[in-house]
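Final report, Chapter 2: Outcomes

The project's central promise was a pipeline that accepts a single protein chain and returns its three-dimensional structure in a standardized token representation, suitable for archiving and comparison. That pipeline is now operational. To close this chapter, we reproduce one record exactly as it appears in the project archive, with the input sequence first and the structure output second.
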Amino acid sequence: MTKNKSFNYKESIERLNKILEKLENQEGDIDELMKDVEEATNIIKTCRGKLRSVEKQLSDKFDDIDN
């Protein structure tokens, strides 16, 4: 995933699965490994942020229902 392209959550999970498959099959060299691990780390951070945002939005909506 490049920094210029924005992936949605589903695309991010698909990309993580491709990276994982590549790592499991021991494809590529050490330089590619580091690049892939860095990319996966960035994707995970982005997805975690999206999940937290959605969790907050849902919590706010449920709070509105209770009031």
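Archive annotation: The CA atoms of residues 16 and 40 lie 6 Å apart.
This record, like all others produced under the grant, will remain available to the consortium after the project formally closes.
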